[in-house]
Amino acid sequence: MGGASFFPGYSMKPSLSWDAQVALMTGRGLAIDDEAVCAEFLAATNYYRFSGYARYFQKAPHLGDDDFRSGTTFDEIRAVYDADEALRTALVEPLARVEIMLRSHVARVIADEHGPYGRYLEQDFYTDVGDREPTVESCLRDIERSRDRHILRYKGVGGDRADFSELPVWSAVEAWSFGTLSKVIERGGGGSLADSIATSIGVAKAGFAYRVRALVYLRNRCAHHSRLWHHSVIDAGPTPNNVRKKAKREAGQFEPRSVLDVIASFDDMAARGGVADPLLPTLAAEHDRASEFMQGLAKPQSPRDHARDTPR
Protein backbone atom coordinates (compact mmCIF):
# COMPACT_ATOMS: atom_id res chain seq x y z
CA MET A 1 0.00 0.00 0.00
CA GLY A 2 3.06 2.24 -0.22
CA GLY A 3 2.78 3.32 3.42
CA ALA A 4 -0.83 4.50 3.03
CA SER A 5 -3.32 3.85 5.80
CA PHE A 6 -6.83 2.48 5.58
CA PHE A 7 -7.80 5.11 8.18
CA PRO A 8 -7.52 8.83 7.35
CA GLY A 9 -5.03 10.62 9.58
CA TYR A 10 -3.13 7.45 10.46
CA SER A 11 0.05 6.16 8.85
CA MET A 12 1.31 2.61 8.68
CA LYS A 13 4.07 1.98 11.24
CA PRO A 14 7.09 -0.16 10.36
CA SER A 15 7.87 -3.36 12.23
CA LEU A 16 10.90 -2.91 14.47
CA SER A 17 13.29 -5.47 15.93
CA TRP A 18 13.51 -5.61 19.72
CA ASP A 19 16.86 -3.84 19.65
CA ALA A 20 15.33 -1.15 17.43
CA GLN A 21 12.45 -0.80 19.90
CA VAL A 22 14.97 -0.23 22.69
CA ALA A 23 16.74 2.37 20.56
CA LEU A 24 13.39 4.07 19.85
CA MET A 25 12.69 4.43 23.59
CA THR A 26 16.19 5.69 24.42
CA GLY A 27 15.82 8.19 21.59
CA ARG A 28 12.69 9.44 23.31
CA GLY A 29 14.59 10.01 26.54
CA LEU A 30 13.93 6.82 28.50
CA ALA A 31 16.89 5.88 30.71
CA ILE A 32 17.75 2.19 30.27
CA ASP A 33 20.60 0.78 32.38
CA ASP A 34 20.86 -2.57 30.56
CA GLU A 35 19.63 -2.51 26.97
CA ALA A 36 20.03 -6.29 26.58
CA VAL A 37 17.74 -6.92 29.55
CA CYS A 38 15.23 -4.44 28.14
CA ALA A 39 15.27 -6.18 24.74
CA GLU A 40 14.71 -9.56 26.43
CA PHE A 41 11.77 -8.11 28.34
CA LEU A 42 10.19 -6.75 25.16
CA ALA A 43 10.68 -10.10 23.41
CA ALA A 44 8.82 -11.84 26.24
CA THR A 45 6.19 -9.15 26.70
CA ASN A 46 5.45 -7.29 23.43
CA TYR A 47 6.28 -3.63 22.94
CA TYR A 48 2.62 -2.73 22.35
CA ARG A 49 1.60 -4.18 25.73
CA PHE A 50 4.46 -2.36 27.49
CA SER A 51 3.57 0.90 25.75
CA GLY A 52 0.17 0.83 27.46
CA TYR A 53 2.06 1.51 30.69
CA ALA A 54 4.83 3.65 29.21
CA ARG A 55 2.49 6.28 27.79
CA TYR A 56 1.67 7.42 31.34
CA PHE A 57 5.33 8.41 31.67
CA GLN A 58 5.46 10.29 28.36
CA LYS A 59 4.91 14.02 27.97
CA ALA A 60 1.80 14.14 25.76
CA PRO A 61 1.30 11.00 23.65
CA HIS A 62 -2.26 12.09 22.76
CA LEU A 63 -0.71 15.10 20.99
CA GLY A 64 2.01 13.10 19.30
CA ASP A 65 4.73 13.98 21.82
CA ASP A 66 6.07 10.56 22.81
CA ASP A 67 9.16 11.84 24.62
CA PHE A 68 9.49 10.60 28.18
CA ARG A 69 9.35 12.97 31.12
CA SER A 70 12.80 13.89 32.33
CA GLY A 71 14.38 11.26 34.58
CA THR A 72 12.01 8.43 33.66
CA THR A 73 13.67 5.00 33.74
CA PHE A 74 12.78 1.67 32.21
CA ASP A 75 13.01 0.07 35.65
CA GLU A 76 10.41 2.52 36.97
CA ILE A 77 7.88 1.57 34.29
CA ARG A 78 8.66 -2.12 34.54
CA ALA A 79 8.04 -2.02 38.31
CA VAL A 80 4.48 -0.83 37.62
CA TYR A 81 4.06 -3.47 34.91
CA ASP A 82 5.29 -6.24 37.23
CA ALA A 83 3.03 -5.07 40.08
CA ASP A 84 0.04 -5.08 37.73
CA GLU A 85 0.87 -8.59 36.55
CA ALA A 86 1.23 -9.77 40.15
CA LEU A 87 -2.19 -8.32 41.02
CA ARG A 88 -3.87 -10.12 38.12
CA THR A 89 -2.23 -13.37 39.20
CA ALA A 90 -3.30 -12.84 42.82
CA LEU A 91 -6.91 -12.29 41.72
CA VAL A 92 -7.28 -15.41 39.57
CA GLU A 93 -7.69 -18.03 42.30
CA PRO A 94 -10.03 -16.13 44.65
CA LEU A 95 -12.15 -14.97 41.69
CA ALA A 96 -12.49 -18.62 40.66
CA ARG A 97 -13.61 -19.52 44.18
CA VAL A 98 -16.26 -16.79 44.19
CA GLU A 99 -17.47 -17.92 40.76
CA ILE A 100 -17.87 -21.49 42.00
CA MET A 101 -19.61 -20.26 45.14
CA LEU A 102 -22.06 -18.26 43.01
CA ARG A 103 -22.81 -21.32 40.89
CA SER A 104 -23.66 -23.25 44.05
CA HIS A 105 -26.00 -20.59 45.42
CA VAL A 106 -27.69 -20.02 42.05
CA ALA A 107 -28.43 -23.73 41.74
CA ARG A 108 -29.70 -23.98 45.32
CA VAL A 109 -31.97 -20.94 45.12
CA ILE A 110 -33.47 -21.89 41.76
CA ALA A 111 -34.05 -25.48 42.90
CA ASP A 112 -35.65 -24.40 46.19
CA GLU A 113 -37.79 -21.55 44.86
CA HIS A 114 -38.60 -22.58 41.28
CA GLY A 115 -37.90 -26.29 41.08
CA PRO A 116 -34.75 -28.01 39.83
CA TYR A 117 -36.07 -28.94 36.38
CA GLY A 118 -37.42 -27.12 33.36
CA ARG A 119 -38.51 -23.76 34.73
CA TYR A 120 -35.05 -22.17 34.54
CA LEU A 121 -34.99 -22.96 30.81
CA GLU A 122 -38.31 -21.27 30.01
CA GLN A 123 -38.09 -17.91 28.28
CA ASP A 124 -40.60 -16.19 30.56
CA PHE A 125 -38.46 -17.06 33.60
CA TYR A 126 -36.20 -14.18 32.55
CA THR A 127 -36.78 -10.46 32.18
CA ASP A 128 -34.78 -9.71 29.05
CA VAL A 129 -33.81 -6.28 27.85
CA GLY A 130 -34.17 -4.80 24.36
CA ASP A 131 -32.70 -6.68 21.42
CA ARG A 132 -30.09 -8.57 23.45
CA GLU A 133 -29.89 -12.34 23.08
CA PRO A 134 -32.62 -13.97 25.20
CA THR A 135 -31.08 -15.30 28.41
CA VAL A 136 -32.52 -18.77 27.87
CA GLU A 137 -30.68 -18.92 24.53
CA SER A 138 -27.39 -18.12 26.28
CA CYS A 139 -28.12 -20.87 28.80
CA LEU A 140 -28.94 -23.44 26.12
CA ARG A 141 -25.98 -22.51 23.93
CA ASP A 142 -23.55 -23.07 26.80
CA ILE A 143 -25.23 -26.35 27.74
CA GLU A 144 -25.12 -27.61 24.16
CA ARG A 145 -21.42 -26.78 23.88
CA SER A 146 -20.61 -28.89 26.92
CA ARG A 147 -18.84 -32.22 26.46
CA ASP A 148 -19.35 -33.37 30.04
CA ARG A 149 -20.98 -36.76 30.44
CA HIS A 150 -23.71 -35.43 32.70
CA ILE A 151 -24.78 -33.11 29.85
CA LEU A 152 -24.16 -35.37 26.85
CA ARG A 153 -26.73 -37.94 27.92
CA TYR A 154 -29.50 -35.35 27.50
CA LYS A 155 -28.52 -34.50 23.92
CA GLY A 156 -30.63 -35.68 21.05
CA VAL A 157 -29.58 -37.08 17.68
CA GLY A 158 -29.97 -35.94 14.10
CA GLY A 159 -29.07 -32.32 14.79
CA ASP A 160 -32.27 -31.44 16.64
CA ARG A 161 -32.03 -29.41 19.80
CA ALA A 162 -32.00 -31.74 22.75
CA ASP A 163 -34.69 -31.75 25.38
CA PHE A 164 -33.06 -30.48 28.55
CA SER A 165 -36.28 -30.30 30.55
CA GLU A 166 -34.99 -33.07 32.83
CA LEU A 167 -31.50 -31.58 33.23
CA PRO A 168 -31.21 -30.52 36.89
CA VAL A 169 -30.16 -26.94 37.45
CA TRP A 170 -27.18 -28.02 39.55
CA SER A 171 -25.78 -29.69 36.42
CA ALA A 172 -26.69 -26.81 34.13
CA VAL A 173 -24.87 -24.16 36.20
CA GLU A 174 -21.60 -26.06 35.70
CA ALA A 175 -21.96 -25.69 31.92
CA TRP A 176 -22.73 -21.99 31.92
CA SER A 177 -20.00 -19.43 31.36
CA PHE A 178 -19.51 -16.88 34.13
CA GLY A 179 -21.11 -14.30 31.84
CA THR A 180 -24.21 -16.43 31.35
CA LEU A 181 -24.39 -17.12 35.08
CA SER A 182 -24.32 -13.34 35.65
CA LYS A 183 -27.23 -12.86 33.22
CA VAL A 184 -29.24 -15.54 35.00
CA ILE A 185 -28.67 -13.81 38.33
CA GLU A 186 -29.62 -10.40 36.96
CA ARG A 187 -32.68 -11.41 34.92
CA GLY A 188 -34.01 -14.59 36.53
CA GLY A 189 -37.24 -15.01 38.45
CA GLY A 190 -38.73 -11.76 37.25
CA GLY A 191 -35.89 -9.89 38.91
CA SER A 192 -36.29 -11.61 42.28
CA LEU A 193 -33.55 -14.19 41.80
CA ALA A 194 -30.71 -11.75 42.52
CA ASP A 195 -32.24 -10.76 45.86
CA SER A 196 -32.66 -14.39 46.91
CA ILE A 197 -29.08 -15.26 45.98
CA ALA A 198 -27.71 -12.22 47.80
CA THR A 199 -29.66 -13.27 50.89
CA SER A 200 -28.39 -16.83 50.54
CA ILE A 201 -24.78 -15.61 50.48
CA GLY A 202 -25.33 -12.99 53.17
CA VAL A 203 -24.52 -9.83 51.18
CA ALA A 204 -26.53 -6.69 50.54
CA LYS A 205 -29.37 -7.06 48.01
CA ALA A 206 -29.00 -3.59 46.53
CA GLY A 207 -27.10 -3.74 43.27
CA PHE A 208 -26.00 -7.34 43.82
CA ALA A 209 -26.49 -8.42 40.19
CA TYR A 210 -24.37 -5.50 38.98
CA ARG A 211 -21.63 -6.31 41.47
CA VAL A 212 -21.53 -9.82 40.00
CA ARG A 213 -21.33 -8.36 36.50
CA ALA A 214 -18.31 -6.31 37.58
CA LEU A 215 -16.61 -9.47 38.85
CA VAL A 216 -17.16 -11.13 35.46
CA TYR A 217 -15.54 -8.11 33.85
CA LEU A 218 -12.60 -8.20 36.26
CA ARG A 219 -12.14 -11.95 35.78
CA ASN A 220 -12.11 -11.52 32.01
CA ARG A 221 -9.46 -8.79 32.16
CA CYS A 222 -7.28 -11.01 34.34
CA ALA A 223 -7.82 -14.00 32.06
CA HIS A 224 -6.77 -11.97 29.02
CA HIS A 225 -3.79 -10.40 30.84
CA SER A 226 -5.26 -6.93 30.34
CA ARG A 227 -3.99 -3.88 32.19
CA LEU A 228 -5.71 -3.06 35.52
CA TRP A 229 -3.53 -0.03 36.29
CA HIS A 230 -5.20 3.23 35.20
CA HIS A 231 -8.24 1.29 34.00
CA SER A 232 -11.70 2.69 34.65
CA VAL A 233 -14.42 0.03 35.01
CA ILE A 234 -17.41 1.59 33.25
CA ASP A 235 -19.95 -0.73 34.87
CA ALA A 236 -18.30 -1.22 38.24
CA GLY A 237 -21.45 -1.98 40.24
CA PRO A 238 -22.67 -0.20 43.39
CA THR A 239 -20.26 -1.23 46.14
CA PRO A 240 -22.13 -0.83 49.48
CA ASN A 241 -21.15 2.30 51.39
CA ASN A 242 -20.07 0.40 54.52
CA VAL A 243 -17.84 -1.85 52.39
CA ARG A 244 -16.37 1.16 50.61
CA LYS A 245 -15.64 3.02 53.86
CA LYS A 246 -13.84 0.01 55.36
CA ALA A 247 -11.81 -0.45 52.18
CA LYS A 248 -10.75 3.20 52.15
CA ARG A 249 -9.48 2.91 55.70
CA GLU A 250 -7.25 0.09 54.50
CA ALA A 251 -6.14 1.35 51.10
CA GLY A 252 -6.81 5.10 51.05
CA GLN A 253 -9.21 7.06 48.86
CA PHE A 254 -10.33 5.60 45.54
CA GLU A 255 -12.91 6.43 42.90
CA PRO A 256 -16.19 4.51 42.38
CA ARG A 257 -15.18 3.10 38.97
CA SER A 258 -11.65 2.18 39.96
CA VAL A 259 -10.26 -1.33 40.11
CA LEU A 260 -9.82 -0.87 43.88
CA ASP A 261 -13.57 -0.32 44.20
CA VAL A 262 -14.30 -3.58 42.40
CA ILE A 263 -11.74 -5.41 44.54
CA ALA A 264 -13.40 -4.00 47.68
CA SER A 265 -16.76 -5.34 46.48
CA PHE A 266 -15.17 -8.67 45.61
CA ASP A 267 -13.46 -8.94 49.02
CA ASP A 268 -16.81 -8.42 50.74
CA MET A 269 -18.51 -11.12 48.69
CA ALA A 270 -15.64 -13.57 49.09
CA ALA A 271 -15.45 -13.07 52.86
CA ARG A 272 -19.20 -13.35 53.43
CA GLY A 273 -19.30 -16.45 51.25
CA GLY A 274 -16.43 -17.90 53.26
CA VAL A 275 -14.34 -18.75 50.21
CA ALA A 276 -11.33 -16.40 50.29
CA ASP A 277 -9.44 -13.96 52.48
CA PRO A 278 -9.65 -10.25 51.58
CA LEU A 279 -7.07 -9.19 48.99
CA LEU A 280 -7.15 -5.43 49.57
CA PRO A 281 -5.30 -5.45 52.94
CA THR A 282 -2.45 -7.45 51.40
CA LEU A 283 -2.30 -5.10 48.42
CA ALA A 284 -2.22 -2.07 50.73
CA ALA A 285 0.56 -3.62 52.81
CA GLU A 286 2.71 -4.29 49.74
CA HIS A 287 2.36 -0.86 48.12
CA ASP A 288 2.47 2.66 49.52
CA ARG A 289 -0.80 4.54 48.97
CA ALA A 290 1.05 7.38 47.24
CA SER A 291 2.95 5.09 44.84
CA GLU A 292 2.47 5.30 41.07
CA PHE A 293 0.93 1.86 41.10
CA MET A 294 -1.65 2.41 43.85
CA GLN A 295 -2.62 5.83 42.51
CA GLY A 296 -3.22 4.27 39.09
CA LEU A 297 -5.53 1.68 40.67
CA ALA A 298 -7.32 4.22 42.87
CA LYS A 299 -7.76 7.13 40.44
CA PRO A 300 -7.65 5.88 36.85
CA GLN A 301 -6.85 8.47 34.22
CA SER A 302 -6.33 8.56 30.49
CA PRO A 303 -2.83 9.51 29.28
CA ARG A 304 -4.31 12.88 28.30
CA ASP A 305 -5.35 13.59 31.90
CA HIS A 306 -2.05 12.29 33.24
CA ALA A 307 -0.04 14.55 30.96
CA ARG A 308 -2.18 17.56 31.85
CA ASP A 309 -1.86 17.03 35.60
CA THR A 310 1.84 16.18 35.68
CA PRO A 311 4.46 18.97 35.66
CA ARG A 312 6.86 18.68 32.75
Fold topology:
Blueprint: H1 18-27, H2 35-45, H3 47-54, E1 58-60, E2 65-68, H4 74-114, H5 135-145, H6 149-152, H7 169-175, H8 178-187, H9 193-201, H10 208-223, H11 241-251, H12 259-273, H13 280-286, H14 292-298, H15 303-309
Antiparallel strand pairs: 1-2
Kindly summarize this structure in a few lines.
With 312 residues, this protein is mainly α.
Describe this structure in words.
With 312 residues, this protein is mainly α. The protein folds into two domains: 61 residues, no CATH class; 218 residues, no CATH class. It is 56% helix and 2% strand. A two-stranded antiparallel sheet has the order 1-2. The N terminus and C terminus are likely disordered.
User: Could you state the order of secondary-structure elements as H and E?
Assistant: HHHEEHHHHHHHHHHHH
Number of strands: 2
Kindly provide the radius of gyration, computed on alpha-carbon positions and rounded to a whole number of angstroms.
23 Å
Q: What structural class do you assign from the helix and strand content?
A: mainly alpha
**How many DSSP helices?**
15
Nearest-integer average pLDDT: 90
The shape is: elongated
| End-to-end CA span | 38 Å
Oligomer: single chain
Q: Largest beta sheet: what is the strand line-up?
A: 1-2
Q: Tell me the count of domains.
A: 2
The amount of beta strand, in percent, is under 5%
Q: Helix proportion of residues, in percent?
A: 55-70%
Largest sheet: 2 strands, antiparallel
Give the low-confidence spans: 1-8, 308-312
Considering the chains and any ligands shown, give keywords for the structure.
312 residues; mainly alpha; 2 domains; two-stranded antiparallel sheet; 15 helices; disordered C terminus
